[in-house]
Amino acid sequence: MLNPYDLLQGVLTEIEKGLKENINDNILAEKYSVSQVHLGRLFKFSFGRTIGAYIRSRKLAASIEDLLRSDLNVLDIALEYGFEHEQSFIRAFKHEYQLTPGELRKTRQIIKITPPLQLFDSNKLENDQRSDYFCVLGPDIVMVPQFHAAGKKYKVPFRDALSLTPCLTKLFLNSELMKITNTQNSGVYINFCMEADVNKDGEDADYFWYMPSVQVKTLDNIPDEFDSYTFPASLCAKFSFLGPGDIAPNIAVVDGTFKAIDNFVEDENQKYFLERKRINFGRCELSAYDGVYSQWEWFAPVYN
Fold it and tell me: For the segment 41-56, what is each residue's pLDDT rounded down to a tens digit?
């Protein structure tokens, strides 16, 4: 099976090649030997829209050139781009652009279209442990609402972070998660990294706190052996990751994550400052893991 970067790159290329053909998620899934459901999840996770909606938007965008540069009638253009009926093309066109194809020809109005999605070299992270790649997308600047979490808090030396945190995550998922009953979004696990206090000499500590956890409705009725934390509503930078491997990010994923984050922090053109040392968290939907690709997101507060 292709690594996620090459799979998504191939899908985007095939969509552009098939705009005047009956390209759809079933054809794409068959070409790349994945299920429609799996491909749909990867595409939605990566680009924030369904593959069907994206194909429709790209077909409509491409049809504008024929509308404005040719004398083809609307029916012929509709059929050329895979619409079964003229009226279905007109309805989709009006829903997308708030005017009909005929009105566009008459008014020559400037409209905003959906351009082709692209992946860049910066979206590709090499997996040092295998001969394939992770795909990283973002950052997006998002507002994260306040939420409560319960989990197990561990003191982790910085030197052991890459090797120890995946093990602690697996321990929590396999042995602890089911003991927390007051859950919200129970199919999602969250791993917090929290800054340690300075030591008695005023120097930065050589460790941080790591808390694999699950979101809970309230901080009431949490078993005594668990820790809790309330993440305040915050403007955050969000990175999205797709990669081969287990549901708990392995060493290569964790290492690649922080390489991508460092690139963001060091970019002189970005307007936000990242507070990742104080606190950050990863988020993964358990049901999204299909045994081949892991999908997860990373958040850290930002300010400008």
Answer: 889 999 999 999 999 9
Report the amino acid identity of residue 120: F
What pLDDT, in 10s, does the model give residues 185-232? 878 999 999 988 755 555 667 899 999 999 999 998 899 999 999 999
Q: What is the DSSP letter of 150?
A: E
Average pLDDT, the chain: 86
List, in sequence order, every beta strand (DSSP E) within the chain.
124-126, 133-144, 147-151, 154-157, 188-195, 207-216, 227-231, 234-244, 273-274, 279-285, 293-303
- Residue 58, SS3? helix
Domains of the chain: total: 2
Residues 236, 285: one domain?
Answer: yes
Same-domain pairing of 145 and 222: yes
First to last CA, the chain: 41
Whichever domain contains 252, its CATH number is: 3.20.80.10
77 is a domain residue: yes
Q: Is the peptide bond before 139 cis (omega within 30 degrees of 0)?
A: yes
State residue 140's pLDDT score: 87
The residue range of the domain holding 77 is 4-107
Q: Is residue 247 part of a domain?
A: yes
Asked if 286 and 172 sit in the same domain, the reply is yes
CA distances from 125 to 129, 130, 134, 238, 285 (A): 12, 12, 5, 17, 21
Q: Residues 212, 227: contact at Cβ < 8 Å?
A: no
AA identity, residue 100? T
The reply to whether 228 and 276 lie within a common domain is: yes
User: What span, in angstroms and rounded, lies between the C-alpha atoms of 175 and 35?
Assistant: 31
Once rounded to an integer, what is the mean pLDDT over residues 62-91?
Answer: 94
| Structure tokens belonging to residue 217 | 């409705």
